[in-house]
Amino acid sequence: MNLVLLEHSDFIDSDRVRLEGRRLTHILQVHRAVKGDTLRVGLVDGKTGKGIIEQIDSVALEMVVSLDSDPLASLPARLILALPRPKVLNRTVAAAASMGIREIDLINAWRVEKSYWESPRLSDGNLRLQSILGLEQGGDTLLPSIRLHRLFTPFVREQLPQQLKGHLALLASPGAHADPPRKVTEPVVLAIGPEGGFIDREVETFRDIGFTEVSLGPRILRVETAVAFLVGRLF
Amino acid sequence: MNLVLLEHSDFIDSDRVRLEGRRLTHILQVHRAVKGDTLRVGLVDGKTGKGIIEQIDSVALEMVVSLDSDPLASLPARLILALPRPKVLNRTVAAAASMGIREIDLINAWRVEKSYWESPRLSDGNLRLQSILGLEQGGDTLLPSIRLHRLFTPFVREQLPQQLKGHLALLASPGAHADPPRKVTEPVVLAIGPEGGFIDREVETFRDIGFTEVSLGPRILRVETAVAFLVGRLF
Known about the structure:
2 copies of one chain form a homodimer.
Chain A: E1 4-6, E2 11-13, E3 16-19, H1 21-29, E4 38-43, E5 48-56, E6 61-69, E7 77-82, H2 86-98, E8 103-107, H3 124-138, E9 145-149, H4 152-159, E10 168-172, E11 188-192, H5 200-208, E12 212-214, H6 223-234
Parallel strand pairs in A: 1-4, 7-8, 7-11, 8-9, 10-11, 10-12
Antiparallel strand pairs in A: 2-3, 3-6, 4-5, 5-6
Helix pairs in contact in A: 2-3, 2-6
């Protein structure tokens, strides 16, 4: 936790917060913070700053906070991910949030197991928690917007094309030979398939609407590894 | 599992293997393979090829295998990692192996919790299993060599310098301003600190022996995210 992310509901006065639960446990056990210590803090979707601990015990922590810095600039990247298996989903959302990605579309694909769509990890609450864990890691405050699309074609064929204007649209594809570009200057929309890849018909749909297939090399990477690899490569 | 990694002990004849346990379960539940199916296989530290399932049930699987392709070329990168917390260690070793990294040194640092060194996840057996999971993901066979260094100074000051010749030595450092280089042509030694970073004295030691500090951007990334980000950036 490189930044303690605060919610509006944590405020007990205009400049004072009270924390219990997960964040308190982390601050006690990992930071080993004591009264008088200063922590880096930020308000969800708001500014960052400092908090000085005025009181801390096993029940609660109170800090006086000052929030005076703007949040970090977003990474100009939007992710279109075939819904990963639930465990991988959590790590991928957190990793994406930690790198400053603010737009994530989780889509269906032929090789996405139907049962993944029933996972409780797709709840708003869990997706928000994973995003917060990523922001706390990265030191950031702006929550990604995460959208679910249970039908591939209506989203990819009908909605996505009009959202691609001015963007570089790349599809990570194990079959591709082209290297992903380096140091891009335009915002990127990045599509990554399920384990086993998008099927040919899905790849063709992406191609039809303007995506370029790029290779991540001869190895097949897990989705959260692929996202970080591509962020390192592209920006 | 994009490749079923075989051990010498799996062979019951010169071209026939029998699998039980983890791999069988995965092949049944995820691949949903049946008799006659062909799977991509590889021998640990050896060649890759195909296996044709001759018999499969809930107890065991038998395949006739032919191994005729050389393994993928290693990534010319060696990792020097401050020992991460055990859960993160597993994911980092698997991610590194999946990307073709063959040399990993796990080192102590001031901000590495002493208890991490007592983790059962540091056993040869677990490090080998995590490496295998990464190779099965990446479709590769060459196990990384993973070394433990419980003392920072003797390793970094005395052993490491003579191993840096001909290498680009980079230290990922939250304080740095320099961008990591792109598309490098020499092999790289990449040092990544613990949560909270290397302390100043440790950073100076790396600098003294020839490491250049590079920034991963304004955000602080988890070690497994940082490794993938840097691999994408450098190669």
